[in-house]
Amino acid sequence: MEVGRLPLSASQRGKLISAGYTTLASLSSISPSDLARDLQVPESEAFEMLKVAKLGCGLEQPDKHTAIVNGAQTAWDILNEERLLPRITTSCADLDKILGGGINCKEVTEIGGVPGIGKTQLGIQLAVNVQIPVDCGGLGGKAVYIDTEGSFMVERALQIAEASVVNWSSYSELLRKESQACQVEIQPTDILEKIYYFRICTSTEQIALINYLDQFISEHKDVKIVIIDSVTFHFRQDFEDFALRNRLLGGMALKLMNLGKKYNLAVVIFNQVTTKCTEGSFQLSLALGDSWSHCCTNRVILYWNGDERNAYIDKSPSLRSASASFSVTSGGIRNSASKHKRIRVM
Amino acid sequence: MNPSNLLPSQNLTMGCPVLDRCLGGGIPCNSLTELVAESSCGKTQFCLQLTLFAQLPPSHGGLSASSLYLHTEFPFPFRRLRHLSHSFRSSHANLILSNPYEDVYVHAVHDAHHLLDIMPKIECFVASRKTRLPVRLIVIDSIAALFRSEFGNNPLDLKRRSFLFFEISGMLKLLARKYGLAVVVTNQVVDFMGEVEGISGMRVGNLSSLHSSGRRVCPALGLAWSHCVNSRLFLSRNEEIVGRENDGLEDDLCRQTRRRLDVVFAPHLPPSSCEFVITKQGVFGVDR
Fold first, then answer.
1. What is the pLDDT of residues A127-148, one digit of tens each?
2. pLDDT tens digits, A257-269
């Protein structure tokens, strides 16, 4: 930034430039008395000018939170930021590939599918994977799991946690061959302790919890993922007013999106499917209607392809539509074992 | 709350180690389990057996609890329950002191709205603890019958119907959660017509298709209801010719019914299956 763009009077700017102070950097290390002598102005005026120049400097630093209020972020900054963002792996390499490396932080990802396709399994897997230690390339965070359907089974979570611990320790053993890093033993029960579990029984509770989440996460800053399994269940009951339902859902999505941005965490929402009648033929689509489909950044649909579970990127601003197969094993979500071509680009 | 507080989770035994192994310990509490089958596959037998085994102490896989049996099909099989409870009592003589069928509460339900109406009453009943043993098991046999008459096959009725599904299931899950209940509902099947590949490519659960009595079937009440249950178990029967019996006059085919239990989907179970037989003493799994 140049001196010419500082909010000073024209005569002051002229004096600065004619005395050779053209950039802010040249003003940064000068004392008010030196500046007063150079410009031949009273010392108090020089002091004021330096204060303005300092403010101008502050504006330029992108990591200041005031930047969002005072001016927009440039796309370049956002790109750099995004490159540094870690992603949460799904433990299935093919699925990660079509997701661009995993579930993105700061984004709302919606995942839908028929019952029994593995939505809850994927949810539990993500709640465990967010805890992958930083040395193993993970986030080392905690998870918030909001269960509206009662499908979260602790034995299953423990099972997946046990399998993951084995994976992590074999990975860090590989790392240790190169550097003698001391390894902290992680117990599967520690993993369960880092999942904050909420069981929701009515739609009112659900709205209240989403409102409370902001406070909860501000107290637990290490939460890196919020999982809602599923957002739909309590909203498919008879609502007297459907416009109200859509407003409530929209508000909820907005809050989740803000949460993701503010605390730099991933939001994963599970949705159910329904049949939609279009022009006489029935088609499967995700529940909650059209206005809801605008609420999420990414949308992934899980479906059966023969005997194989598949995932398909239905909507995303940055990913190409592609599908990949995955399988649910005793240890969690893994690559599909079949010999088929595993990733298809649409 | 941390999930580790929930460990160990409670299960209600099916009353047979083979079946329990197939279901990872039995029917989970805090959860809604559905038994899907055509008629005469043993849905009611399973339910009756569960009401008896719920009375066992936790050390024997039970819940030390009484149960509430909501039946929609008439009449309630009292005689079968008495038979079962006699043999149950003699095999667990040291654990069960009173008459087992005194701890099974039976209530008739006529349709979906009736069920919603009595739901507050059910909650009072469960909460009141006026029963000798606390109520920890609710059985609805069968859920499909509640929706049989009232709803037509037009979009408006179907929409109303699916709202009711979510309402009923929401309430049942709330009860299950609040009082640590195991909830079991039974569902009927409908014949499957159409393409080989499900309804417009739709497939629910581990099995690509469900077969019973040589026909292809799918669970009643459709997709919306399948979102309402936590686990779905499928019972099927198939006649099998095991040999020929020749008594001189007629050539008789000796038939045997093979019954199977399949896990269609469950959040805590891998796809698994198990064969079972129904005897005078109850339902038992068979290792094969």
1. 999 998 887 778 889 999 999 9
2. 999 988 989 999 9
Q: What is the mean pLDDT of residues A25-51?
A: 80
Best of B32, B229, B234, B268 to mutate (most A CBs within 10 Å, chain A): B268
Residues of chain A with CATH 3.40.50.300: 85-345
C-alpha count within 13 angstroms, C-beta hemisphere, residue A5: 9
> Looking at the partner chain, which of B28, B174, B203 has a beta carbon nearest the beta carbon of A304?
B203
On whether the A85-345 domain is CATH 2.30.40.10, my answer is no
Q: Is A241 exposed, middle or buried (0-12, 13-18, 19+ CB in 10 A)?
A: exposed
Looking at chain A, the domain(s) classified CATH 1.10.150 span 8-78
Query: What interface predicted TM-score (ipTM) does this complex get?
Result: 0.84
End-to-end CA distance of chain A: 46
- CATH homologous superfamily of B10-286 equals P-loop containing nucleotide triphosphate hydrolases (3.40.50.300)
CATH fold of A8-78, please?
A: DNA polymerase; domain 1 (1.10.150)
pLDDT at B183 over 90: yes
Residues of A (242-271) whose Cβ lies below 8 Å from B: none
Helices A203-219, A242-263: crossing angle, 10 deg rounding: 10
Q: Per the omega criterion (within 30 degrees of 0), is the bond before B271 cis? A: no
Q: How many CB pairs under 8 A join A and B?
A: 125
Mean pLDDT within A300-308: 86
Whether residue A278 lies within 8 A of chain B, CB to CB, comes out as: no
> Chain B residues with CB inside 8 Å of A333's CB?
none
Complete DSSP assignment for A233-256: GGGSS--S-HHHHHHHHHHHHHHH
